[in-house]
From TrEMBL:
This is MFS transporter. Keywords: Membrane, Transmembrane, Transmembrane helix, Transport. It holds the Pfam family MFS_1. The lineage of its organism: Bacteria, Pseudomonadati, Pseudomonadota, Betaproteobacteria, Burkholderiales. Residues 10-428 form the Major facilitator superfamily (MFS) profile domain. SUPFAM superfamilies: MFS general substrate transporter (SSF103473). GO terms for molecular function: transmembrane transporter activity. It is found in: Membrane. Coiled coil: none annotated. It comes from Massilia cellulosiltytica. GO terms for cellular component: membrane. Its main location: membrane.
């Protein structure tokens, strides 16, 4: 392990590294949905296109071993950040072309794989440059920094898009259409500039990242390791029950993730709340994310005190039951911003509170074994697959049902989550004596914490 020196002190590169990762991820997989909606795309396509961009992040475990084979982890971090910056700048420029949508979508798909590679390399720098004690010491900084990314991307930048559209370009904020491209072009240039600045900073302060043990030296070696990790994963006891849990725990949340913001900005004539981008950025992207962080903190304390086995079903209830707030808002269509904010805060707080249980279950029960980190990545990949599938279908289903009936369907979709949680097996200790084995090394996995919220 490399001992950090003054220039590579973790506080110089951990916060900025994970902030940059998160901002790129949220811009591609969440903020693009709002942009698509603003420029006049229907809910079906807006939800489907933005959801498909999750695929690369879901498939990270399939190409992670190959990233380990070449150069240093820092090299990949810097290269990917420069390419991401060029990609966002290219997306802004593409909006001036006749076939801009095809070019922009192609860039977004390519950027999603680049962003996933950046995640692999950044996590690798963190894990291999810091010893176990230092990893634990900066785990909270890592998690907090990652969650600042969504606040900036889906909060401040969405807010800024609305201000630019209205105050700078003097367009009607209530009309969705091509006029919104002026504002979003500026947003993409801003993101490109931020990421480029981060790359320059990381070139100066980020450590190189040591090579992990048993790193493959060629494609054949990487393929053998990947195949063995799959074989041993499916040899785990009750693996299909754990797979069901990993895929279904957030099933209803996947249906809500894209449609929630659409519901906020759609007009009352379409059954929505008619919020501006500015209001959406403040309520959904700022207060909602702060509520997630607060819920995650308290949820972690709750699990630590009582143990996961005793609390997992309670946490599932916390994730799913508060979805009723969206059904209530769809039925009443409140116009008061504080009422809307309260509904979002309640749903997001309990989502953060309950989601902690999901991540801890993957670390304690699914991941332990020969390939702890890889098997944990398989679990989060299943979560990503769920969010991609449900998000892709959610727009079409919402347009068919309307908002009220759709949110009823979201509540029905909680049933698989409850069943998968009820039958989720526990074969390892949860820290409270539940199980026969000691906690697996995944309990200390530094890759996990920044995904918890």
């Amino acid at each position: 392990m490399r001992t950090p020196d003054r220039i590579s002190h973790p506080l110089l590169w951990v916060p900025t590294g994970y902030f940059t990762m998160a901002m790129g991820y949220i811009m591609l997989t969440s903020v693009t949905a709002i942009m698509f909606k603003n420029i006049g795309m229907d809910n079906t396509r807006a939800a489907a296109y933005s959801s498909l961009l999750i695929f690369a992040y879901t498939a990270k475990p399939l190409f992670a071993p190959f990233v380990e084979m070449y150069r240093t982890k820092k090299f990949f971090v810097l290269l990917m950040q420069v390419l991401i910056a060029l990609g966002f700048a290219g997306a802004g420029l593409a909006m001036s072309l006749p076939n801009w949508m095809v070019v922009m979508l192609s860039l977004f798909v390519l950027m999603s794989f680049i962003g996933a590679t950046q995640d692999i390399a950044s996590d690798g720098v963190y894990v291999t440059s810091l010893d176990t004690r230092t990893q634990a010491l900066y785990c909270g900084v890592q998690s907090l920094s990652w969650n600042v990314g969504p606040i900036v991307a889906s909060g401040f930048l969405v807010y800024l898009s609305g201000r630019l559209h209205t105050d700078v370009f003097h367009h009607d904020p209530k009309v969705f259409g091509p006029d919104w491209m002026d504002a979003w072009r500026v947003i993409f240039f801003i993101v490109a500039g931020l990421v480029l600045v981060m790359a320059a900073w990381h070139a100066r302060v980020m450590p190189e990242g040591a090579r992990a043990e048993n790193t493959p030296t060629n494609v054949r070696g990487a393929a053998v390791i990947l195949l063995d990790s799959f074989v041993t994963f499916f040899q785990k006891r009750d693996v299909w029950k754990m797979i069901a849990f990993a895929f279904l725990f957030r099933f209803s949340i996947g249906m809500l993730e894209k449609i929630g913001p659409f519901f906020m900005v759609d007009s009352a004539a379409k059954g929505g709340l008619g919020l501006s981008n500015e209001s959406l950025g403040i309520i959904y992207g700022t207060w909602g994310l702060i509520a997630v962080l607060a819920g995650s903190l308290l949820g972690g304390m709750f699990v630590a005190k009582r143990g996961l086995k005793r609390t997992l079903f309670i946490l599932c209830c916390a994730v799913n039951i508060p979805n009723l707030t969206f059904l209530a808002m769809a039925m009443t269509l409140p116009t008061d911003s504080w009422t809307i904010a309260a509904g979002v805060i309640v749903e997001k707080f309990f989502y953060g509170f309950g989601s902690v249980g999901y991540m801890i279950y993957l670390m304690q029960q699914l991941a332990p074994g020969k390939y702890t980190t890889t098997h944990y990545a398989f679990g989060t990949g299943l979560m990503g697959l769920c969010m991609m599938v449900t998000g892709s279908l959610s727009g079409m289903l919402q347009e068919y049902l309307g908002y009220v009936s759709y949110f009823v369907a979201v509540m029905i979709a909680t049933i698989p989550s409850f069943l998968a949680t009820w039958f989720a097996p526990f074969h390892h200790d949860d820290g409270m004596g539940a199980g026969s084995a000691k906690p697996g090394p995944a309990a200390n996995d530094a890759n996990a914490s920044h995904r918890a919220a």
